[in-house]
Amino acid sequence: MKKKVVSMVLSLAMVAAVVTGCGNSGSTPATTDTAATNDTAATTDTAADTASNDAAADTSASSGELIKVGIINNDPNESGYRTANDKDLKATFTEENGYDASFAYSNENDEQIAAAQKFIQDGVDYLLLSAAGTAGWDSTLQDAQDAGVRVILFDRVIDADESLYEGSIVSDMDKEGQTAVEWLKSQGLSEYNIIHLQGVMGSAAQVGRSGALTDTAASEGWNIVTQQTADWNAETAQQIVQSVIDSGTSFNVIYAENDDMARGAVAALDSANISHGVDGDVIIMGFDCNQWALQELLDGNWNYDGQCNPFQSSYISDIIKKIENGETLTEKTIIMDEKGFDATTITADDVANYGI
């Protein structure tokens, strides 16, 4: 696939104003749903009345008491992926399946840590964690271990000693990025001028997906036109791309680290009447495989979407059941099976089967 390089010569005066408007941190205050009062910044919500998941049944402790679980996740409204991830967890960790579960949400590490400390004080049996950032968790995990609280990571890895948690069910974000970059390299463009839209800085998804592109661009001589965080947000991504268009800078690839940012980028292109997708002037790349995003591939409007599997709750429940039964865990880390989709080969069945 050979792409023409887009060069829009428009007013430079608008650039500074738009870029300044992109300084939005995108942070969301911690929210938690729990039956108990929580005096941290988080707000919580019980999963007691959520629909059951058959695969998670019979997880109650031998005493017949519910297993008390505190679940810390990123904001469910962050993206379609996160909404699906949260829904999956709430369908599994129910009273019907033997759990007393409370949820805390934030995209900020310090707020998540405060919520974790509250859960530890409340005496949960298990702390399930999808960390907003990879660093700064050692002390909290040590506190959990000292209190007899077992920690299970999901969705994202953290920089902590493996002895501080029981297991992790995660996506290989480095591999996701590498798979995407290898696909981009295979397109054989005469030149690569790339708009790089990053997710929340320091998150495992951002680190893995950014690292692959940054390293390959350096080794291959690709030009990164701009590299900015849009905090997973479509509107912010649209503003960043619009600022590049207004500057008249040439680009022919948009590498967005999630589907929502890719959608925002495309909105800016459409406003400027710039073609994109199969046979268009700009290659569009996203991640997460929302069903609507895969449909964009099927329709030829996008070129690539990297899968990030949000359905992790059954794996977590299996670990808990093994621990409750006194079994030895044979795997410390379970890597979700994921792949990338190309607009030229994706099928309607792929959209139906892999879209979230």
Distance between the termini: 28 Å
Radius of gyration: 21 Å
- Tell me the CATH architecture of the largest domain: 3-Layer(aba) Sandwich
- Residues in helix, %: 25-40%
Uncertain runs: 1-30, 34-62
Estimated structural class = alpha/beta
The tally of strands reads 14
Shape: elongated
Number of helices: 11
Query: What name does the CATH topology of the largest domain carry?
Result: Rossmann fold
Order of helices and strands: HEEEHEHEHEEHEHEHEHEHEHEEH
**Assembly state (oligomeric):** single chain
The biggest sheet, with number of strands, parallel, antiparallel or mixed sense and barrel status, is: 8 strands, mixed
The structural domain count equals 2
- The CATH superfamily of the largest domain bears the name Response regulator
Task: Explain what the structure shows.
With 356 residues, this protein is of the alpha/beta class. The chain has two domains: 13-25 and 173-308 and 341-354, 3-Layer(aba) Sandwich (Rossmann fold), CATH 3.40.50; 34-171 and 310-325, Response regulator (Rossmann fold), CATH 3.40.50. It has helices at 13-21, 80-92, 109-122, 138-146, 173-186, 204-220, 234-247, 259-271, 291-298, 313-324, 348-354; strands at 31-33, 44-46, 67-73, 99-105, 126-129, 150-155, 167-170, 193-198, 223-229, 253-256, 283-288, 304-307, 333-335, 340-342. Strands 1, 2, 3, 4, 5, 6, 7 and 13 form an eight-stranded mixed sheet that branches. A six-stranded mixed sheet has the order 9-8-10-11-12-14, sandwiched between helices. β10 (253-256), α8 and β11 form a beta-alpha-beta unit. The longest helix is centred in the middle third of the chain and has 17 residues, at 204-220. The model is unreliable at 1-30 and 34-62 (pLDDT under 50).
